[in-house]
Amino acid sequence: MQSTPPPTASFTRGLLINFVAPLALLAAAVSVFMALGTVEPPKRPDPDMSRNGRLQALSPIRIEPIKLLDPTETPLFLSVDGTVVPFEEANVAAEVSGRIISKSEKCEAGGFVKQGEILMKIDPEDYQLEVQRLSQQKDQEYQRLQELDQEMLNSQKLIDVAQQDVKIQEREIRRLESLPSGFASRTEIDQANRALLAATQQLVSLENQLKIQRKQRTRIESAEKLAATQLQAAEVNLRRTHVRAPIDGIVVTEQVDVNTFVTRGSPLVTIENTSKVEVSTSLRMDQLYWILDQVDIEETKTSVGYDLPETDAIIEFEVSGRHGMTHQWNGKLLSYDGIGLDPKTRTVPVRVIVDRPSEFIHQGESSIPSHSTTPLVRGMFVRVRLMIHPKTQLYVIPTKALQPGNRIYEFTPDDSVLDVAASEEEIFNPPLEPSVDESFDPVDWIAGRVQIRNEVIPVNSLSLGNLNAKSHSMHSDNEHTSQTTSFTGRDFWVCEVAGFNGEGDRFVVTSPLGTVSEASFPARADNSTTPSPQISEPLDSSDQVSIRQTRSSVKAGGKS
């Protein structure tokens, strides 16, 4: 029979496993923890409340200058596309019917003709015969008129004789009636009265005949004038058998040849005036705004608001296959091309005239005759750069400074932000950390405030050229040291900024700032990145700084 352990030993073993062992482990852990001890954090040093320390505590930013664009010295270039069209085009048609009997050698497509030069001749035989017939008819009417004048002269003489006869008969009757009774019989008196009546009748008849002759003369005069008019028309038709060039220009097309019979109105040749050319282009309404917003606009009572200010322009044509070779011509924007907006593009058509299409601008020099390229001719696709002098104050702003939502961060130097009493709660809360950047040099930084400008209107499709710049090294005492800096090749926006008066130096933040919730906040600007452009030279199209061309303004939430 197997023996069982005593109940006291089993109880003791369970007690050791369930209570004593955990307590021992806990005691061991406490002993290890006490042996390790406690670690106290290092004491936070006192903040550096010196001027340099407060300056280093500000958020660092990079700034660049904002410069007022001088409208009297530096024009803006409004760039639009256009197509060259004829300034004047003459469609020469036959003014009389007939057969072409000769044609000038110059009357071929591409030939240059001068005004008044004979292009072709129409058979003049029929028109010569008509001139001869009407000339003879006119001579006949003239002879009839001379004959009638002689008849009228004779009638007038007969009237004079008849009037004398009437006077004689009247005196005879008075003489007979004055005799005493019995000296003149009644029969003699009646015979004298009958003689007076016959003389009076003869006089009236001659007077009526003269009146009829005068009316005949008026009719013959009209017939003579009609014959003369018809003769003039025949002579005009005879001259029209010689087809002449109405203008100086190039023959574009010619539709007839020798021995071709043409009728009145048949097209013969088309001639284009090459002394001037016209560039057809269109402007958006926002572009038209800058054309109208110029200092030289003078409204007159006759214009009634439908005139455009005369604006200088540069016409550019890129020669294909010549590695970007571009030729330029001087032109002028003169007027609207019609009235109203194009219903398809919703743009305003305008006319740009080039007075000398055969002379182009070469590398910024004066106009010279075109030898290395063709003059401006119809069909060329060109770029028109309108030189605008706006009266609205515009500002040159770096592209990187334009923030989403059409706003900028303007930096204003202000040492008062380092005043502890004024800005302790604003800047130095929580307390400042001690300066650990040994390379920090206070001379390289300037303290100031950043203010958000929301009312910024970028001027699209405008380019600015020839930016000769100077940079200002800013110090806390607001003194500036100038040195030459080149802005060539950098991108800018030309903007209209509400609230700017164009006085004093202004700077804009170009470094990223992240989310900005306050209207203004203090910061320190890198003093080595504050160039100030001096825009004082006239714009040279060969040295332009292109502003990024966009068709719409920078939208809120987008990237500039």
Question: What does this molecule look like?
Answer:
There is one protein chain. The chain has 560 residues and is an alpha+beta fold. Helix content is 29%, strand content 30%. A nine-stranded mixed β-sheet has the order 1-28-21-20-27-2-19-26-22, with no helix packed on it. Strands 3-12-15-14-13-18 form a six-stranded antiparallel barrel. The protein is elongated. It starts with 6 loop residues before the first helix and ends in a 15-residue tail after the last strand.
- End-to-end C-alpha gap: 100 Å
Relative helix content: 25-40%
How many helices? The count is: 6
Task: Specify the overall morphology.
Answer: elongated
Low-confidence runs = 422-435, 461-489, 532-560
Indicate the structural class.
alpha+beta
Count of all domains: 4
Spatial extent as radius of gyration: 53 Å
Spatial strand arrangement across the major sheet: 1-28-21-20-27-2-19-26-22
Q: What summary fits the major beta sheet? A: 9 strands, mixed
| Strand-residue proportion | 25-35%
The average pLDDT is: 76
The counted number of beta strands is 30
Detail the topology: elements first, then pairings:
Elements: H1 7-36, H2 51-57, E1 60-61, E2 63-69, E3 76-86, E4 89-93, E5 98-103, E6 112-113, E7 118-122, H3 125-178, H4 186-240, E8 242-244, E9 249-254, E10 261-262, E11 267-272, E12 277-283, H5 285-292, E13 311-318, E14 326-336, E15 348-354, E16 359-361, E17 367-369, E18 381-388, E19 394-398, E20 408-413, H6 420-427, E21 445-453, E22 456-458, E23 462-465, E24 468-474, E25 480-486, E26 492-497, E27 506-509, E28 520-526, E29 531-534, E30 544-545
Parallel strand pairs: 1-28
Antiparallel strand pairs: 2-19, 2-27, 3-12, 3-18, 3-23, 4-11, 5-7, 5-10, 6-9, 7-8, 9-11, 12-15, 13-14, 13-18, 14-15, 16-17, 19-26, 20-21, 20-27, 21-28, 22-26, 23-30, 24-25, 24-29
Helix pairs in contact: 3-4
